[in-house]
Amino acid sequence: MTVVDSSAYRRRQVLEWVALHSFAVALALLFALPFVFVLLTALMSDQQSLTRDLWPQPFAWHNLVDIWHTPGFTTWWRNTLVYAVLGTALTLLSSVPVAYALAYFRFRGRNVAMMVVIATMMLPPQVSIIPLYLVWAQNFHLTGTLWPLIIPLAFGDAFSIFLLRQFMLTVPRAYLEAARIDGCGDFRTMIRVVIPMIKPAIAAVGLFQFFYCWNDYFGPQIYASENPGAWTLSYGLQTFKSAHHTDWNLTMAATVLVLAPVILLFFLAQKAFIEGVTLTGVKG
């Protein structure tokens, strides 16, 4: 290769790098701009938020403090945290054993059971909400609380079971056979061998479930709307917006406080999350 060809090749590589990264930066800005707009509006004064200004002058950081001290906001925050953390823990505790059984146990009807699990993912929650509401209201008297949303998660989640099962199929069977040779039963094999090897999948499933519970609006609206003490952030934010429909800075400040924990959690766990999602569908 001559010096001219080498120089042209390096120049082409530089241009390709610039083009590729410019496109990536443009996409990143496209997705980030709405969040930047929400944050900047949240830091504006009452008068400035009604103008065309895009930059707060000055920054009204007290908006976030005022929202935090709004009556009921800390209660919504606490309820959402309990719902998300407890719901995620119950989902993982119940889904991992079921996924392990569907991945490694050999029994008649295993494929049918897996098809039933997948079929439940296609059933919209609106289809069964009325009979379920009647059961929780008339038999257990738990309406006005979040327990009708939390308790069912102790019996597994179809989407979580599917993802975990797909990931478990990527674990070499040699590890399981070695554990059984050493005298481990199915439970110890699951705890000592399989779970440590599927941590990325568990992290991905946990994040999916945490985000779902944190952002859930339909469930709290159905079961907890009659009791303000059981409202979550998603439902409380809607009522806050209705009460402050002209105070865009306060509405955006409340939105920032709702979004901040989710965004922070995703950035802290994005490596495990992306790895879990990427490797889940390797083997079927």
**Secondary structure tally, helices:** 13
User: Strand percentage, roughly?
Assistant: under 5%
User: How many distinct beta strands?
Assistant: 0
CATH-level-4 superfamily name of the largest domain: MetI-like
Main beta sheet: none
Mind telling me the CATH class of the largest domain? Mainly Alpha
Number of domains: 2
Rg from Cα: 25 Å
Question: In words, what does this structure look like?
Answer:
This protein is an all-alpha fold and 284 residues long. The chain folds into two domains: 3-62; 71-280, MetI-like (MetI-like fold). It is 74% helix and 0% strand. It has helices at residues 3-42, 62-68, 73-104, 110-121, 125-139, 147-150, 158-168, 173-181, 186-197, 199-215, 218-223, 233-243, 248-280. α8 runs antiparallel to α9 (186-197). It is flat.
